[in-house]
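User:
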Amino acid sequence: MCQSINLTTKGNTAISYCSKCNFHYVWQKSYVLTFSCFQYACFLEEIRNRVGNEEFLAFPDDEERMFLATPAPEILFTFTKEEWYNFTTALEEANYMREVYRIIQ
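Assistant: Predicted structure:
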């Protein structure tokens, strides 16, 4: 994995970026998502479209969570309301910070 800079951390979400390979790393508890700049922009747009349209369901542990589908239909990510807020906020903040780093370089 690249030597990347931390763009933001919100709750369980941390996002880093490698300016050499132009990849974003979205760290969330037990998984890491990797995106090229184009993929990150597309992912961020999809997330923006979901904000405000979330449907939280009661899970067996009585915690309300929402599902985030992946391209593999058998894999779904879940978020509590607080995790979702941190996740979406971190994605937006990281996008902004990446632009700041690009200008500085």
